[in-house]
């Protein structure tokens, strides 16, 4: 019996019919394009807005293409993460709350397949959105500024994809553990943002933590991160993802009886 | 053959006891009605039997491999899914081979009368259609045991009759346990009655047994006028109650004896009699008695 | 870079923003049961650029 296939098909249909698989990538693409475009027009914009005395010249340093790509990442770290968390906060908690889960749970359901089918669907959407967005940014930076070396870009985007998977795993595990979508989102946002802040404040004391992935991803643009720290960070992130997957599956099963009958 | 046996089933929520020491058995191929007032613990009991809730203590013995179907009181479907898509998913998750899942789903939708709307999204379905789809998803894998929580209470009389007829046609291949507070329905299809109140089983047995237990040996005689009724009541030596133009006699006798005596008496003074009947208690009267008495 | 190329580069931004807005509005009109009053979402979608439609899609939409 292949429950994973059946359940993944359901998730696929759902994401198709609530259009998540279309609009989430489009929003990431939009933010990917906006960053290089604003940078390109910033001098002209300041020129037309400011009442500068005659003869004053604004000298803005032309941003490096790598810096713009890093700024796109900054946008994703705020708005992008919030969108992914809000889009998938109800994956499990919402099904339990609305009562739609009951007709699944009453069957001999594999909670592992149930959880993993949702995780894979959200993961595909998240990683695809980030790649499309970053590629759009890459193309615009190439048109308006200079080309970023393609290998550097691939290392940058590839490293960042691990971070996206971690965030997706956090939100799905939270959705399995929390009684409703709102609390799942609150817990995920707190984990993703506050732990990053904590890492940036105290992170000088250690060199590897999953929270440093976005920073290490950006370092690929300028050279390469310390490889030992880098691999340890990735290994730790993957360990986190695996632990959260087990936790999420366990919680999905444990909390099944809280589904509305 | 016993298909399901429940012993001392108990469910507590903190201090509150939802179900207490419930014991009963279901015989294969029978229909059992679980009745009782709101809050009696019917839904909690069915949820535990369906495996959605874990019992605090007690045991439920049955052959899980023979399959169970469950219809919650208010089934919720994914509104963006069509009826057929949902059925196919339900069938596969219940273990129907993927080769047969689609045909089995179509067949079941036809059976419950949703064949013509199988490609409509369930979000557009009316309450009655959802109830039918709920029944369909519960029986698509041909389970031996069917658990239904208030399967007809949300429907109009026509819809109720149709669903009850569908349920009857599932017998005797399927053992049915259903809760209801519509006693008329319970009377239509039941081999066994389980009467719950405050989480406990307060009465059970076949419909006939329960009725006999609560039957009062009363004979009702209707007259054309109230005056004739009163006159007759004055003549008899049995305890008699006047009820408009009718008299009810309470005679403690075995079997037909009471009726024979009444008919003999009426042969002498039968002025204005238009009907004589042996009264049997309706389930509703029993319900009120049980619910009020204990 | 000449003017027409720049306009071509800016067009996708305009398309996406307008597209998101129109898509969210059409979905709102068809939505039988949004999470909150319809008029409020309509105002938000039209007035708050980008974020309005996104907020509607993640919070206001609910599956239907």
TrEMBL record, chain A:
Entry keywords, A to Z: Membrane, Transmembrane, Transmembrane helix
One family name in Pfam for this protein: ABC2_membrane_2
The keyword Transmembrane helix belongs to this UniProt entry's keyword annotation: yes
Listed GO MF terms: ABC-type transporter activity
Presence of keyword Coiled coil: no
Cellular component GO terms, alphabetical: plasma membrane
Chain ranges passing through the membrane: 21-42, 68-88, 119-141, 153-174, 186-208, 230-252
Name of the molecule in the record: Putative transmembrane protein YxlG
Species lineage: Bacteria, Bacillati, Bacillota, Bacilli, Bacillales
Name of the encoding gene: yxlG
UniProtKB/TrEMBL annotation, chain C:
Predominant location: membrane
Record flagged with keyword Transferase: no
GO cellular component, as recorded: plasma membrane
Domain Cardiolipin synthase N-terminal: 20-61
Annotated transmembrane regions: 7-26, 38-59
Keywords, sorted A to Z: Cell membrane, Membrane, Transmembrane, Transmembrane helix
Protein's name in the database: Negative regulatory protein YxlE
Phylogenetic lineage: Bacteria, Bacillati, Bacillota, Bacilli, Bacillales
The gene coding this protein: yxlE
């Amino acid at each position: 019996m292949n429950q994973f296939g059946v359940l993944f098909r359901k998730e696929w249909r759902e994401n198709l019919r609530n259009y998540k698989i279309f609009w989430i990538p489009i929003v990431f693409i939009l933010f990917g394009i906006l960053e290089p475009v604003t940078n390109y027009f910033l001098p002209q914009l300041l020129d037309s807005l400011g009442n500068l005395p005659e003869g004053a010249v604004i000298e803005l340093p032309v941003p490096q293409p790598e810096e713009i790509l890093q700024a796109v990442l900054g946008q994703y770290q705020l708005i992008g993460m919030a969108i992914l968390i809000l889009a998938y906060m109800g994956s499990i908690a919402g099904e339990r709350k609305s009562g739609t889960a009951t007709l699944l749970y009453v069957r001999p359901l594999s909670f592992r397949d149930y959880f993993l089918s949702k995780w894979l669907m959200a993961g595909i959407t998240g990683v695809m959105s980030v790649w499309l967005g970053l590629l759009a940014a890459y193309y615009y930076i190439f048109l308006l500024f200079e080309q970023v070396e393609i290998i550097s870009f691939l290392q940058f985007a590839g490293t960042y994809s691990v971070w996206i998977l971690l965030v997706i795993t956090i939100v799905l595990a939270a959705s399995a553990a929390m009684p409703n979508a709102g609390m799942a989102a609150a817990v995920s946002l707190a984990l993703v943002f506050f732990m990053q802040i904590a890492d940036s404040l105290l992170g000088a004391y250690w060199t590897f933590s999953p929270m440093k992935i976005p920073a290490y991803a950006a370092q690929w643009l300028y050279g390469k991160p310390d490889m030992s720290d880098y691999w340890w960070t990735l290994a730790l992130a993957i360990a986190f993802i695996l632990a959260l997957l087990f936790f999420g599956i366990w919680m999905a099963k444990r909390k099944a009886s809280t589904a509305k009958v | 053959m016993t298909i399901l046996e429940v012993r001392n089933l108990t469910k507590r929520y903190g201090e509150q006891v939802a179900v207490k020491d419930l014991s009963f058995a279901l015989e294969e191929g029978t229909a059992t009605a679980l009745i009782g007032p709101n809050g009696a613990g019917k839904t909690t009991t069915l949820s535990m039997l369906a495996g959605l809730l874990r019992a605090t203590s007690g045991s439920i013995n049955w052959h899980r491999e023979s399959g169970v179907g469950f219809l919650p009181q208010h089934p919720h479907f994914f509104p963006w899914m069509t009826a057929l898509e949902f059925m196919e998913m339900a069938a596969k998750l219940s273990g129907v081979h993927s080769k047969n899942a689609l045909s089995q789903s179509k067949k079941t939708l036809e059976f419950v009368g949703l064949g013509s709307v199988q490609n409509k999204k369930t979000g557009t379905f009316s309450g009655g259609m959802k109830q039918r789809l709920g029944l369909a998803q519960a029986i698509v894998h041909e389970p031996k045991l069917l658990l239904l929580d208030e399967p007809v209470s949300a429907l109009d009389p026509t819809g109720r009759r149709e669903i009850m007829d569908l349920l009857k046609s599932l017998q005797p291949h399927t053992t049915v346990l259903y809760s209801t507070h519509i006693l008329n329905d319970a009377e239509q299809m039941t081999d066994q009655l389980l009467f719950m109140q405050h989480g406990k089983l307060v009465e059970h047995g076949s419909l006939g047994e329960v009725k006999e237990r609560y039957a009062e040996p009363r004979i009702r005689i209707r007259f054309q006028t109230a005056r004739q009724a009163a006159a007759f009541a004055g003549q008899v030596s049995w305890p008699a109650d006047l009820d408009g133009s009718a008299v009810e006699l309470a005679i403690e006798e075995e079997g037909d004896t009471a009726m024979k005596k009444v008919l003999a008496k009426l042969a002498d003074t039968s002025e204005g009699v238009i009907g004589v009947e042996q009264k049997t208690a309706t389930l509703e009267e029993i319900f009120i008695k049980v619910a009020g008495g204990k | 870079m000449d003017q027409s190329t720049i306009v071509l580069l800016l067009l996708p931004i305009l398309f996406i923003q307008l597209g998101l807005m129109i898509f969210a509005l059409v979905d709102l009109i068809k939505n039988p049961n949004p999470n909150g009053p319809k008029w409020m979402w309509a105002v938000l979608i039209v007035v708050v650029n980008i974020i309005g439609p996104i907020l509607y899609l993640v919070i206001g939409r609910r599956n239907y």
